[in-house]
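Notes taken during the Thursday session

The instructor put the following on the board and asked us to keep it in front of us for the whole hour. The protein is Protein kinase domain-containing protein. We were told not to look anything up and to reason only from what is written here. First, the residues (566 in total):
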Amino acid sequence: MTYETKIIMNYSYNTCDIIGKGFSSVVYKGINTNTKDYVAIKVINRKFSEQLPAIQNEIHILRSLQGRHILKFYDHFASKNNIYIITEYCKQGDLGQRLKQQGYFKQDQAVAMVKQIIDGIYVMAQQNIIHRDLKPQNILLNEQDVRIADFGFAKPLNKLKNEMNVGTPIYMSPETLIKSQYTSKTDIWSLGVVFYELLYGKPPWVAQTEQELIFKVLNKSVVFPDFPFVSDSVKDLIKQCLIIDPYMRLSLNDLIQHPVIKRSSKQIVKPNETESTDQTIKSEVPNASDPWTYKNSDKKLVQINYKNPQINTIMSKYLNPNTTNQKDNKQIKDNQSNFDEITSILQSQFNLCLFLNIMISKVRDQKLQTPLLNEKCRIIFSKHLQNVKENIYKQLIEGENNFKFKEWSLYCKENTYNKFSAKFILENAQFNKTIKDYNEMIKSNKSLIIEYQKYDSEFYQILFGLEWKIIRKIIKNLILEFNHMIIQSVDFFNQSYQITKNQATEIILLQQLCCYLEMIDKFFLKNFDQEKFAKESKIQSYLKAKDMKMSDYLEIRFQIKNLMRN
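Then, after some discussion, the predicted structure tokens were revealed:
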């Protein structure tokens, strides 16, 4: 093989000096011919045109980020055949290579590196950017400093919409693996995995497939070996980074206050207040392409740790799907239209649970002029969530067929049933938490219940059942009050008025409340028709994050006007 020296503007490199390779690129050690400083030159072949959006994204992100522990960006060029990205040269390679050489790092070395990685994450947080592929191979070493690199998957949180998961599974958070969700805590999970690997030379979970990895993450707690020695405070930090529920996981602000990080962390800059630590960019519904579909695992999982044996069976079949026999396949083909209808009805009811769960959270955060109205609506949504969730649970898990589906027993033999049931089981924990909060609120506030019984006998009935005429009246009042609050801050006479982020959040909630009122009128005031609801409710469209403009708000105001006439 012959090697040659190539020149791009004031940079040059020899094709023998390869320091890294990717699917569509090669990274060379080069030199700035003006300053004589070493640089890294990433050469991307333009024939991989499908990679161009990621390349453009990486260039844009690198140019916008400046920090001691972020890889320095110098320049980029394009020729007929290639794209060139010029960055600083890190002569010690990456953390993945160092781990292979050393096996593991001593605790003080690992902590020092993690503090620097956190500093880099904070630089990203100041611009609301998440990396989405933090791993040792993407953390470079330059003398005693680390540099976060490879920003091909990085994006601002507010620009993440309807995206499939990206990155390396072993470092991906469970909400990303299972539901293709990204939050500002996605990188915190990855950091926890990297920290563990630096200390022990291996990640906390080892798996052959994504299915096996999901099972282990959900069912097996993090185990810390006796050797090498790691302090309890470091173990605590890792555990808090690796909490499955992103709402309970450490936020960036919590992370910097942890005793392990707080010591000698003067260089870390606190992120902007604009950082949304709990923001879920992916909508609360599963990705349309069904991220629960994975390749079959060659390794059989024999232990399922759920208490309910029926759930164990479902999760076992979900993780290790078996093929049905020929007779069943023929029956399935003959009944496909029935199966599609069952799936549609179950999905619409599941979406209703997600919708109600979102509403409870959003209404709880609102400060209304009538606080009692806020509480009443949360009770309504919680009661409704409990009702719908229990119906789905009885249908899927207890097998009561209270939906009265035709060919239900045959549908239960389909992989679709196992996938949908597993999806519901994974979300059910959050539904149960919401309902538990509601039940505890009712039990702990007996005096308020007595007040309802004495002075608001109408609403008192709702504590024992869903009285839709009464509920409709309360939701109307909430819409009117909430709309009045928004009017005070929005200049709706000005067509060019820019809706703020907070106003957009409030307007989306107002739109969702209007949707709920319409559902009451169309479906709940009458004998509920589950098939009609599945076909006509369009509830899934109200679960997705949307950009709001003044014209959208004016449409919602017109919708409110029509709703109030009834």
